[in-house]
Amino acid sequence: MNYRILGRTELNVSVIGVGTWQFGGEWGMNYTQEMVDQILDAAHEVGINLIDTAECYGDHLSEQLIGGYISRHKREDWIIATKFGHEFHNLFSRTDRFDSQSVVKQLDNSLKALQVDYIDLYQFHSGPDAAFDQDELWETLDKQVQAGKIRHLGISIGKNNNIHQVKRATEVGAKAIQVVYNRLDRVPEEEVFPACAKQDLGVLARVPLASGFLSGKYKPGATFASNDVRHRQDAEHQAKLLQEVERIAQEELPEGVDMASWALAWCLKHDAVTTVIPGCKTAEQVRANAAAVALL
């Protein structure tokens, strides 16, 4: 495994992390503690130390499953990133909650679910600029940093061209940006990455496999179960993406190289990107993701 310092933090993160939205049940599977244990055991074995989750992946469900694992292992072996800003109601249904009082409650609930005393990276989660621009919110979060509940603040931007929040990152005390970035979506290269470089912000690239399309497993016409978030995406757009994946496989993918490994390494070769956080459904997928470091 390779490691990089995340921006202006002292966090030495593995270049491959574990994304855990799937643990909340919105990617076509429900997870048991045993399944999560196997995934995180595999991550530890290959040197991965970064787990990314959120309060609304289930009603703190993803965090609870991670906490069930962390409580039985060494806390210091892991860098835990989670997020705030949404109240989960049921699958695919959330309400924004970015007022300072709600955020403190979310933080305390996340700490309880994760069974930890502090969170390494606490991220503003895909909220609108009006919510982001509340001075009271960031003052409250700074107090939580001073209290030791949070080590560092970050911003997970909801739109890849949200330069407003990125440009204000240092001003509000954030040291890392999370953004969708992959071979099929290069929008962050235009403005977001230069702004991150200017401020020395760490970058977590989410959806680096383009919701699994860059895994090489799916062909045009692929369908998804009703409890899989991809079922809700525009079918015509999906078809175009899968056609582009076929072109990439024919014209860009080196012979004999696994597409998923190539796609993860492709993201990591951009100077702005610190780490990628692909989702994974099994321990075998964790090990396959980690193999991408051989291509760097």
TrEMBL record:
Q: What is the lineage of its organism?
A: Bacteria, Bacillati, Bacillota, Bacilli, Bacillales
For this protein, the record's Pfam families field holds: Aldo_ket_red
Gene3D superfamilies named in the record? NADP-dependent oxidoreductase domain
Query: What InterPro entries does UniProt report for this protein, alphabetically?
Result: AKR (IPR020471), AKR_Detox_Biosynth (IPR050523), NAD(P)_OxRdtase_dom_sf (IPR036812), NADP_OxRdtase_dom (IPR023210)
Recorded GO MF terms: oxidoreductase activity
Query: What EC number(s) has UniProt assigned to this enzyme?
Result: 1.1.1.-
| PANTHER family hit by this protein | NAD(P)-LINKED OXIDOREDUCTASE SUPERFAMILY PROTEIN (PTHR43364:SF4), NADH-SPECIFIC METHYLGLYOXAL REDUCTASE-RELATED (PTHR43364)
Domain named NADP-dependent oxidoreductase: residues: 16-294
Q: What keywords are assigned to this protein?
A: Oxidoreductase
Please state what the protein is called.
Aldo/keto reductase
EC main class here is oxidoreductase
